[in-house]
Amino acid sequence: MNDSTDRRRKSQQYLALLLAILLVTSTAFGWTQSAPAPARVLSATEQQLLEKLSVATIKETVNALAADDMQGRGTAQPGGDKAAAYLADRFAKIGLKPLGDKNTYLQPIKFRETQFAQTTFTAGNETLKLGTDYFVTPPYSGDENIKGDLVFIAYGLAAPFLKRNDFAGIDVRGKVVLLRDGPPPEINKEQWKKAHAQVNVIRGLIARGAAAIVTVGQDTETLTFAEMADYLTRRQVEPESEQEMPEFLPPFLSVNEAGADKLFAVSGVTRADAFAKAQRDDFTPIDLKQPVTITIKLKKSKGTSNNVVGLLEGSDPKLKSEALVYSAHYDAYGLSSDNRIYHGAADNALGVAEMLSIAEVLTRAENKPRRSIIFLAVTGEEYGGYGSDYWVKNPTWKIKEVAADLNLDGMGTEVYGPVKVLVGYGAEHSSLGGLLNEVAAVTGLRVIPDPMPEEKSFYRSDHYFFVKKGVPGIMILGAPDGATESWTERLRKWEKTDYHQPTDIVRPDWDWSGPRTVAGVMLLMGVRAANAESMPEWLPSSIFNRERGTDKPAPPEP
User: Fold this and answer.
1) Which of 13, 63, 176, 481 has most Cβ atoms within 10 angstroms of its Cβ?
2) CATH of range 44-113+301-531; options 3.40.630.10, 3.30.70.260, 3.30.460.10, 3.30.1050.10
């Protein structure tokens, strides 16, 4: 899934900011740990199931999926197709029934891909370098060939109540505007965010006819400009069904401070002086005295990628019409244009391997679960959870009869050593939280609150798309014993060097007992939920307490 700083999520937040030109929703709510549940004894049958979980299966699957010949399992790339075929074959050999389209294991999804064929950004005699000085930000409306005078407009605000007009004496129509990310010093950051002010600034610039919008990007607490540039210069993938941006939109670019210095080079005003003037309420626009040329040529293509879906039919004549779902995304970032392979070993070959090990045990069990079990390996997660979103909207099982989703995704913390600690994302919303506590108690594990609540991990993986559709869902993280700071520090270091990078590979120091423990917890949770008299339920206190299959918009993310 993601790490403590979650570069992927932050980049998606940045994209969402601009996509919100058409649609904006946001609010906040708190996170609390679900109350402990009374322990139930581990039955002899459950103990036998746990003993049959195979470390060899987990290790073999991870190594196969993270191998070079899988080419990073990219969405709508040959490596992704190969991984889907591999998983379909494994499902068949395990004994799962096909639950995809046309009596196959595959559920195809049509995607479109966008890559940069060419980009140039010149200001006078200065040429900025893509990925180093600047990047282009979605939404992309098409190829661009922009020429215009460059002007600095502070924060791009015209607000009489603040006694501020950053457009005083200038018409920005046809100009390339350079501005700072808000808020200005007189506005509180939380107020700025709550008012969606940055989106409104962009809207205003579009309405004023700016030819291009260039923002001086800033490092955030969790994401550097360089990290953002890394993501946004890669291939972009989205479902073919998503509406494309209208052609009238200007291009959006972000420059770092070094790039901004080049834009100020001949203006007679330094960037530092211009930024200082931007702090004052008597600011007036600054002509940067050089023409700008921006060229963007996009390479667009279409392709298909598949969810892989298998079924273990339930044993109870009445309850088998209801199904519990295990999910895990098999995609990683694939093969880059310069032939780098994003292996995705921890994120998320591990989760898929854990899911397969559970399937292997349950299909071979003498007594099958009462409810049916669906094993769902999804594509497109790294680009926005597209595979799981597609399945809940086009389910191959009646969505009102999906009991719950147990999602296996993470950052590989379970390989740091024997797992002794669990975190349940979504535990506070449904009876799955009590079930997690119950299983932890009988297996000698400890459930702790999310040690990084600011990262909002609940919203960042496939279970959340089930939740939005009214189906209770949970994802768990496994970690070693000892001080929480110890493993979270290791996690933070790993994500700075390996997360969503070609170096997310299988390491010789991995402790393979940890993934087996995580699989065991999910196995027991699934068996108990599948054998219970009633399906898991939403807690009355949850903002997601809605009927299964709902089409109502989800409560806004904080």
Assistant:
1) 176
2) 3.40.630.10
Structure tokens at 454: 């600011």
Distance from C-alpha of 265 to C-alpha of 78, rounded to nearest angstrom = 46
pLDDT tens, residue by residue, 394-411: 999 999 999 999 999 989
CB 369 within 8 A of CB 531: yes
Question: How far, in Å, CA of 555 to CA of 558, rounded?
Answer: 9
What are the b/e assignments for 367-406, b being 16+ CB within 10 Å? ebbbbbbbbbbbbbbbbbbbbbbbbbeebbbebebbbbbb
**Spatial distance between the Cα atoms of 292 and 265, rounded to a whole number of angstroms:** 13
In a 13 Å sphere around the CA of 129, the CA atoms on its Cβ side amount to 5
Q: pTM higher than 0.85, yes or no?
A: yes
Nearest-angstrom CA–CA distance, 124 and 292: 6
Question: Coil, strand or helix: which one is 259?
Answer: helix
pLDDT of residue 89: 98
The alpha helices in 331-462, defined as continuous H runs, are 350-364, 386-393, 431-442
Q: How far apart are CA 92 and CA 105, in angstroms?
A: 9
Domain boundaries, the chain: 44-113+301-531, 114-300
213: β partners: 177, 252
Token duo for residue 511:
């402790």
What sign has the CA pseudo-torsion 358, 360, 364, 370? positive
Q: In this structure, are residues 145 and 211 in contact, taking their beta carbons and an 8 Å threshold? A: no
Q: Could you tell me whether strands 372-378 and 323-329 are parallel, antiparallel, or unpaired per DSSP bridges?
A: parallel
Q: Which CATH number fits domain 114-300: 1.10.260.40, 3.50.30.30, 3.40.190.10, 3.30.479.30?
A: 3.50.30.30
Spans in the chain with pLDDT lower than 50: 2-37
In degrees and rounded to multiples of 5, residue 412 shows phi and psi of: 85, 15
- Max CA-CA distance within the chain? 81
- Distance from C-alpha of 200 to C-alpha of 158, rounded to nearest angstrom: 11
- DSSP structure class, residue 521: H
Q: Which 3-state string (H, E, C) describes 292-360?
A: EEEEEEEEEEEEEEEEEEEEECCCCCCHHHCEEEEEEECCECEECCCCCEECCHHHHHHHHHHHHHHHH
Q: Which one, of 245, 250, 244, lies nearest residue 208 by Cα?
A: 250
DSSP assignment letter at 414:
G
Positive or negative, the Cα torsion across 478, 481, 483, 486? negative
Does the bond joining 139 to the residue before it have cis omega, within 30 degrees of 0? Answer: yes
The token pair at 436 is 């997690």
Q: How far apart are CA 359 and CA 346, in angstroms?
A: 20
Judged by DSSP in three states, 27 sits in coil
pLDDT of residue 31: 32
For CA atoms 470, 471, 472, 475, the dihedral sign is: negative
